[in-house]
Specification:
- With 326 residues, the chain is of the alpha/beta class.
- 44% of the residues lie in helices and 16% in strands.
- It contains 15 helices and 13 strands.
- Helix 2 packs across helix 13.
- The protein is elongated.
């Protein structure tokens, strides 16, 4: 699975988490940026604070972790950058244990992976509220979520869709019944077998794609195949991936709300939040600006253009007026 998968690699990540639990976080470096408050952080409400930010090891989450660190830095804190931890579990354990103070997490990951619920809550706000309320017991405070939703989807190239005019997954189901040979799908091995992947989607939408029409491959290849070849009409994607725009793909609407919501929200070690409740006022405006479309643009700067996640985060925060250069 691609490096930026939010939900994969839990076994390997658990090994990393156990290592972190045994010896504490060792890596990291101070943020040395000369940044000052813009529309957030005025009065430097974090003067005297020493805070650690973390993230998982995929581009989007690193960018989001860098945003938190830069906002904290502009607000007066000394910030230790411990982003880019291996997988979901490592970063989660860092927040739970207080080895790190803040990061952006995803509501679906919290609800399903950490809290152990089998079924997602279709309404994004209700899912966030449920995660927020239950995770208090683990010493984790969830701040208001963004509309940025990094979930599964199927995509089609704009070129091919000129023939089929697909807009929703229900449209795909109708096409599969009308012309089964037309519906070819490129997916990863895991997505092909997961209940919250292709089998569950087929069941939810009442479609049956012939096995010969399902092609399994690495995630990175899927985008290229959907964009530039005729080997698959549709491909499994993540909704915030920068290659969607870069490769001129159209994401089909999950009109029956089958796939879980993975809205990004800041999470803070609760004792840290009790000490510095002003963190909410610093991060809420940032989260309100983070949309799926914004994430696609920022992720493309890293994954397509090869830019540094820290600089991408910093440039966006300055562009939006949240912070300024010192």
């Amino acid at each position: 699975m691609r490096a930026r998968r939010v939900r994969a690699g839990l076994a390997g990540a658990l090994v990393g988490a156990l290592a972190l639990a045994g010896c504490g976080l060792k890596s990291g470096s101070p943020m040395v940026d000369d940044v000052v408050p813009g529309s957030v952080g005025r009065g430097r409400p974090l003067d005297g604070a020493s805070l650690t930010v973390t993230s998982k090891n995929f581009s989007e989450n690193i960018i989001l972790g860098q945003m938190i660190g830069l906002v904290f830095k502009a607000a007066g804190a000394e910030v230790l950058d411990r982003t880019n931890l291996p997988g979901s579990i490592s970063a989660r354990e860092a927040i739970v244990k207080g080895d790190a103070d803040a990061m952006y997490e995803y509501t679906g990951t919290g609800w399903i992976t950490y809290l152990g619920h089998a079924k997602p809550i279709p309404d994004p706000l209700k899912q966030w509220e449920a995660v927020r309320d239950e995770d208090r017991n683990n010493g984790v405070t969830w701040l208001p979520q963004s509309t940025l939703n990094n979930t599964y989807a199927l995509a089609i190239s704009r070129k091919n869709n000129a023939e089929y005019h697909l807009r929703t997954l229900s449209d795909v189901a109708a096409l599969a019944k009308r012309n089964p040979a037309a519906v070819t799908i490129c997916v990863e091995n895991e997505f092909a077998s997961r209940d919250d992947g292709l089998p569950g989607m087929e069941k939810a939408y009442g479609m049956s794609v012939p096995a010969a029409n399902i092609k399994k491959m690495d995630a990175g290849i899927i985008y290229t195949q959907v964009s530039k070849s005729d080997s698959c009409l549709l491909g499994e994607v993540f909704t915030t991936d920068g290659r969607i725009r870069a490769m001129d793909l159209e994401v089909l609407v999950d009109d029956k709300h089958f796939f879980p919501n993975y809205n990004a929200a800041p999470v803070v070690h609760t004792r840290t939040f009790e000490k510095y409740p002003q963190i909410a006022a610093l991060l809420d405006p940032v989260s309100r600006k983070l949309t799926t479309e914004v994430a696609q643009v920022l992720n493309a700067k890293v994954d397509v253009d090869g830019q540094d996640p820290h600089e991408v985060a910093k440039d966006w925060l300055i562009q939006e007026g949240f912070i300024e250069e010192g």
